[in-house]
Amino acid sequence: MFFFDFGVSIYFFLFNLFLSSHGYSEAQLGILTGTMAAGNLAGAIPAGRFIQRAGMRNALVTAVFAAPATLCARSLSPSFALQIAAAFVTGLALCLWAVSKSPIIAAITGEQERPLAFSLVFSLGIGMGAAGALAGSRWPEFFSSHFGSAGPLAADQWTLIAACSIAALALVPAIWVRAEKTMVPPRPGSLWSPPVRRVLPAVALWGLVAGSFFPFGNVFLATHLRLSLRSVGTVFSASQLCQVGAVLCAPLVFRRLGVPGGVFTMQMATSFCFLILALTTHPLAASMTYVVLTAMQYMGEPGMYSMMMKVVPEEARAGASATMALTLGVVQLIAATTAGWTFTNLGYPRALGIIAVAALAAGFLFKSVGRTETARLVACGNQGRAE
Questions:
Q1: CA separation, residue 109 to residues 1, 39, 97, 114, 179 (Å)
Q2: Which structural domains are found in the chain, ordered by start?
């Protein structure tokens, strides 16, 4: 997982900048991001069935082979027709990776070490984002100095291919994985069950907030703030490291403020950061705001998932989690497609102002859900004591 996360992090840090340098607008980048999200969404159910039929190890090997191969093909030509088709296939491959990764971890670990294993894997993923940003912002300079303009490929393309090669190294440990158990993927629960129905609107609105800006973060830093590639890598890496710290500190905030109060506070902070970012033109101030913004956004997400698990019965949690994932997939597909058009036609300041309002509304929705559930639990407790 180290090799795959590191290689893919380098790739996605640089890829939008590569396309931007070939004349792609934010609107076109949004279409490609939405297409990849569509592939991810379309692959969710087939990926679960493939794991059941082929086994977890074979599914993991397939994902680790298919994703770098497709990404490598995308780095060879900026043709929009190629990018559209390959973006959908990339979504399918990354979906298979995501769906097979968690069952593999659960299958090769015992009950005692499993929470630590998951924590390490997800922390590693964020940490590799920081390392990938540093590498992706500096390797093009290295390839340029060693290869110059000779050959059919540019320095950024050599970097993208190197990133794919690193990700493909994950094939070696994946082939050696021994996991005999096959976990049955959860089926989505009903969208209309009362607890899920109360939480899903807030989840969907927050998914729109997250999917509208963060896929364009590196392009925003490079084109709107006009930072150099090296500076973009430094800011992006700092934001990833702050995300790790924020996620680790989130339980302390939830313990003090409660989960609904903690989520509301962090989403208010996220909204405020979006507003500051919309009004700030100084590169250093905007970069610092961007780092805080990403930390606040990631800090609230564990609480959001915890709220969903709290409001549904234990036997319905697997279905609720799948429903939540499908909902986020749909809204992020919509967000990525429409946000690119919005950034291109309205400009970043106005678009960021709109996202700030959406984040504010999401915070109040989550607060309302928290109050409703608290009142319901109190009523149930009183009823139980009366009986």
A1: 15, 30, 18, 6, 10
A2: 1-179 (1.20.1250.20), 188-387 (1.20.1250.20)
